[in-house]
Amino acid sequence: MLRVLACITQDHDWRLVILAGVICMFACFAAITLLAHAATTRGRPRLIWLGATAAVTGSGVWATHFVAMLAFRPNLPMGYDIGLTVLSVVVAMALTGGGFAVSLANGSRRVDQLVGGAIVGLGVFAMHYTGMAAMRVPAVVTYEAAFVVASLALGMGLAAPALRLALSAGTLLRRLTAAQLLAAAICGLHFTAMAAVVMVPDPRVPVPEQAMPPEWLAFGVALTTLLILGAGLASSIVDQRVAAVSTREAERLRIIVSELEETKRRLEATTGELSSALQAADAGNQAKSQFLATMSHELRTPLNAIIGFAEFLGADLGGPLNPKQREYVGDIHRAGAHLLGLVNDVLDLSQIDARRLTLDEAVVDIDEAIAGAITMVSLGAAEEGISLRSLVAPDLPPLRADGRRLRQVLLNLLSNAVKFTPKGGTVTVSASRSGADLAITVADTGIGMAPEHIAIALERFG
Asked: Is the separation of the CB atoms in 206 and 147 below 8 Å?
């Protein structure tokens, strides 16, 4: 450590050393900022940001190295091989760019970030010694292995946590800390490696005439520094614009979230009101159904008595009736039967609403059920001159159903068909099987139904 400090203070111009540190710090901060942009993109935009990061980092490492070399005072004439000097910046860009790419691979895992940082440190190491190989001086140049190894360990050891810190969060403080670590890796590697240099002057070692003079090197360093400054300025402008857009988007999202929360509160209040209304309506509906069930039951008792007495009188069990009396008794019987049918329908509906209707299932003979329903409407059909036909497929299997409800449905359909079929028409009841399904159809030659009336017919009491 003391030898490195002595190398800096005794063998270098401290003003140029400070300038090299400033250039290095600025280049590292610009590189960390560009890398943060690359981490937030995918596809081609990421490649562009990675390319810019590699260019700024490689140029910054190159500028730092050669400003420090301009600060180096070996008291010997110096020049630089142009080819190796150019190669050194290419090596720096290529290896640091590869390290940055590795750090962002596979979702930017911690191990990838550390490996990528180590590759960046290796790139700084390769750039330094390529740049040193470009140096032309009348001396025999050798390196002490211990300091060479120490420089490599220092560069890789500091660059790895620098990238890990740079990609762990996007705060300004973390970026600055990461930039300081990366700058320490670059500068520490350079001056540790310079402490490894041993120059033994030898006038027999010529400096080639085509070697680049330090003045031209200084011009190249200045131009590179301007490029780094431009990249840093562009990155700052992008950051400001991104921050402004992010602020606007955050405010817009805040307003949207606020509106959604208000809408949610209103929906919750409305849902509560609807729930209360539905509960009240359901309670009222249950009360209505219970009332209808009770009233229907109470009405059936006197109606059964009326119908029974009408049948008693019509059978002359109370004495012979004259034609007029027989007509009146028939009217009473028909009206009572009709009213009883209506009461039974209301009772069925009320039981369905109250979920109290049960089916008495048993094996039903389809042919017998259809024949029985036809018999019940045959008298009315004959009076109107309407023919009734039954088309039941042979070998139909027995059906498990509520026989009374099945006859009720058939009777309702047949009565309706007879009612709306003109004299001389036909009403046909057919039954057939299709696979596992059984279809019973009532068709008539009456007036039919308009499409707009179907919905009305399917309503209660429609």
From this structure: no
Q: What is the pLDDT of residue 146?
A: 87
Please, are residues 196 and 148 in contact by the beta-carbon 8 Å criterion?
A: yes
Q: Which phi and psi (to 5°) does residue 402 adopt?
A: -85, 105
Q: Indicate whether 210 pLDDT > 80.
A: no
Confidence check: pLDDT of 243 > 50: no
Task: Say what the pLDDT of residue 363 is.
Answer: 92
| Statement: 276-353 belongs to CATH 1.10.287 | yes
| DSSP output for 29-51 | HHHHHHHHHHHT--HHHHHHHHH
pTM flag (> 0.70): no
Annotated domain spans of the chain: 2-212, 276-353, 361-457
In whole angstroms, give the CA distance from residue 372 to residue 366.
10
Residue 269 CA to residue 278 CA, distance in Å, equals: 14
Give the model confidence (pLDDT) of 10-33 as tens digits: 667 777 778 888 888 888 888 888
156 close to 14: Cβ distance less than 8 angstroms: no
Count Cβ atoms within 10 A of the Cβ of residue 414 and give its class: 0-12 exposed, 13-18 middle, 19 or more buried: buried
State the average pLDDT over residues 121-149: 84
Second CATH level (architecture) for the domain 361-457: 2-Layer Sandwich (3.30)
Helix axes 14-39, 214-314, angle to 10 degrees: 20
Of 431, 421, 444, the closest CA to residue 398 belongs to: 431
> Which long-range CB contacts under 8 A does 381-386 form with residues at least 24 apart?
381/418, 381/427, 384/418, 384/421, 384/423, 385/423, 385/424, 386/418, 386/421, 386/423, 386/424, 386/425, 386/426, 386/427
Residue type, 432: S
Cα gap 321→183, rounded to integer Å: 127
Residue carrying structure tokens 């359909």: 413
Mean of pLDDT values over 307-334: 80
- Specify whether the CB–CB gap between 368 and 392 falls below 8 A: no
> How much is the pLDDT for 431?
93
